[in-house]
Amino acid sequence: MPRSVNSVASRKRRKKILKAAKGYFGRRKNVYTVAKNAVEKAMSYAYRDRKNNKRNFRSLWVMRINAAARLHGMSYSQFMGKVKANNIELNRKVLADLAMNNPEAFKAIVEKVK
Question: Are 68 and 105 in contact (CB under 8 A)?
């Protein structure tokens, strides 16, 4: 009985990896074993950095809210504490956007919580 080798599936698997490695430098783009390692490493970085991206954005929002709150004589922690105490349900993303693009609306929020 002849040996059964599913070369269609094997080729598809290899092509998928080489397609993902498109644009890489040197042997990383056209030698399967090297490309496979490069793609696996890239995917692990992508997974990690999707988490870091959320962290970085939250940090940016905090900085922007802090800067805007200090213009009105409050620290970030005082401001956020009073926002929560007054049941204003705006998240940091929205507050940071208001602080940057709509200072008068942010000022109105500050006046409301004071």
Answer: no
CATH topology of domain 8-113: c-terminal domain of poly(a) binding protein (1.10.1900)
What's the CA angle centered on 76, arms 72 and 63, to 5 degrees? 100
For residue 83 the two structure tokens come to: 């926002």
Could you state, in order of their start, the residue ranges of all structural domains in the chain? 8-113
pTM: 0.77
Tens-digit pLDDT profile for residues 2-54: 888 999 999 999 999 999 999 999 999 999 999 999 999 999 999 999 999 99
Q: How far apart are CA 63 and CA 107, in angstroms?
A: 17
Report which of 113, 49, 24 is spatially closest to residue 76, judged by C-alpha positions.
Answer: 113
CA distance 62 to 46: 24
